[in-house]
Amino acid sequence: MKVVVNLKAYPCDPVEVATAAREVSDASGVDIAVAPQAAHLERVAETGVETWAQHVGPVEHGSHTGSTLAEAAAEAGATGTLLNHSERRLKLADIDGALDAAERADLETCVCANNPDQIGAVAALGPDAVAVEPPELIGTGTPVSKADPDVVTDAVEAAEAVDDSVAVYCGAGISTGEDLTSARELGAEGVLLASGVAKADDPKAALEDLVAPL
Ligand SMILES: O=C(CO)COP(=O)(O)O
């Protein structure tokens, strides 16, 4: 199972979370990536943790003020990127352009989507992974794997029908080892989570709990 910890714009210490993630990943052998704010990519990458951008734009070098250039994210140490997060929605053409940008910069990609139909559509664009995250469960602490397990199994089916080489992750409300195990039993190959770690009093303990059953 892959674990991607999205720090969003939460007021946590990105280096503390990244260091904890690297230590837990090293101790457990579980692949854990951290996606901080773009301005924190370099400091997070310096901890040695697998570092992802939260977004890159469908742009090349040029006149694109305020964009996140895939090459700049890679130079800062990112090796992957989320795209089309529910809080950073893109038009289909821009997802396609951002995937091209990520490929140019050699970034692993995970395209998020709200539901299984959208998962099928974005899987067709050829990302490395897709992640189904029902927006109404994001940040609630109620895991998608319990509240809406069909969303996960239907997303796995939808992606497989289009391209079975695309990994399927799920997210929203995931915070415990039990949530992770249920996600795996439903066919997910990874999870995306945020508040369960970024808002935890002890992010390292939260990560240890998360990977304990693996
Ligand atoms: O949006 C998410 C991960 O990208 C999920 O957020 P929560 O883990 O806070 O529900």
Automatic annotation (TrEMBL):
This is Triosephosphate isomerase. Involved in the gluconeogenesis. Catalyzes stereospecifically the conversion of dihydroxyacetone phosphate (DHAP) to D-glyceraldehyde-3-phosphate (G3P). The keyword Cytoplasm applies. Homotetramer; dimer of dimers. It is an enzyme of class 5 (isomerase). Belongs to the triosephosphate isomerase family. It is found in: Cytoplasm. Coiled coil: none annotated. Keywords: Cytoplasm, Gluconeogenesis, Glycolysis, Isomerase. It comes from Halorussus aquaticus. GO terms for cellular component: cytoplasm. One of its GO terms (molecular function) is triose-phosphate isomerase activity. Its main location: cytoplasm. The active site is at H85, E133. Substrate binds at N6, L7, K8, I138, G173, A194, S195. Its EC number is 5.3.1.1. It catalyses: D-glyceraldehyde 3-phosphate = dihydroxyacetone phosphate. HAMAP family: TIM_A (MF_00147_A). Pathway: Carbohydrate biosynthesis; gluconeogenesis; Carbohydrate degradation; glycolysis; D-glyceraldehyde 3-phosphate from glycerone phosphate: step 1/1.
